[in-house]
Design a protein that fits this description.
Hypothetical Protein, Haloacid Dehalogenase-like Hydrolase, Chain: A, domain 2; Rossmann fold; alpha/beta; 11 helices; eight-stranded mixed β-sheet; 2 domains; 14 strands; 270 residues
Length: 270
């Protein structure tokens, strides 16, 4: 069965170490879409932080999809239709905030095209703002401010400490929320069951496709679920070791046109 859907993480996968899409990778993606292959960006980023890249690869022209917040929201980038949206239970925001205070880590969520910080500004939540090219604003009373639906919270801090924070958060909330690190300094706090694989299952149903028709490419911890779920799970050469172990195939790095090589080898037969 031919592959009809190409799912791409952004950082370290679609973009290189300079946060740029290489010309060869861009050309391959354009050729794939010209042949009718649907492209999906699947990222932990908020929707606002994906738009520029989605436009660069012309998802608005070819009817591609944006899977943001690690799967919390799926948007048809051509029409703007939200086909799936799952948010954190609003009543749990104060408890998540309490844990951030107790463990002395940053906490942010997202409002429109802004990131909202609740326990100080650190270099890691500043990095989140820069990566997404959105402003970062601190609010005084985070739990009372965040009374609106949010797709996720992000805890930020030093890598060694965040490993402990991840375990503590899982102990307290593991039965109610999905908690995992996307980077060594980021702990994602997501609605229960939500990850990239779960939400791609929703998209496949919407598109009337099978998982065997899907290639998923990534490099980070939060890509593990979709790489295991895909018909062909691809790890970049620069991926975490656990991601490489889970993959069906390892391509070259994001600096060596790894995505272009996958497209030409498995989708366009060039």
């Amino acid at each position: 069965m031919a592959y009809e859907l190409l799912v791409l993480d952004i950082d370290g996968t679609l973009t290189n170490s300079k946060k740029e899409i290489t010309p060869k990778t861009l050309q391959a993606i354009m050729e794939a879409q010209e042949e009718g292959i649907k492209v999906v960006i699947a990222s932990g980023r908020p929707t606002a932080g994906i738009r520029k890249i989605a436009r660069q690869i012309k998802l608005d022209q070819y009817g591609g999809y944006v899977l943001s917040f690690n799967g919390g929201k799926i948007t048809n980038f051509q029409t703007g239709e939200v086909i799936y949206n799952e948010t954190l239970p609003t009543e749990m925001i104060p408890s998540i905030y309490e844990e951030a205070i107790e463990h002395k880590v940053g906490i942010i969520t997202y409002e429109g095209d802004e990131a909202i910080a609740g326990n100080g500004i650190d270099k890691y939540n500043e990095l989140e703002g820069r990566i997404n090219q959105i402003p970062l604003r601190e609010v005084e009373d985070f739990p009372n401010y965040v009374k609106f639906p949010v797709n996720k919270c992000l805890l930020t801090g030093e890598p060694e400490h965040m490993a402990e924070v991840e375990n503590k958060m899982k102990e307290r909330f593991g039965n109610f929320l999905n908690i995992y690190r996307s980077e060594e300094f980021f702990v994602e706090v997501m609605p229960q069951n939500i990850d990239k694989a779960y939400s791609l299952g929703k998209l496949l149903k919407h598109l009337e496709l099978e998982r065997s028709q899907m290639i998923c490419c990534g490099d980070g911890f939060n890509d593990l679920s979709m790489i295991k779920y895909a018909g062909l799970g691809v790890a970049m050469a620069n991926a975490k070791d656990s991601v490489k172990e889970a993959a069906d195939y390892i391509t070259t790095s994001c600096d060596e046109d790894g995505i272009a090589k996958i497209i030409y080898k498995f989708m366009l037969d060039k």
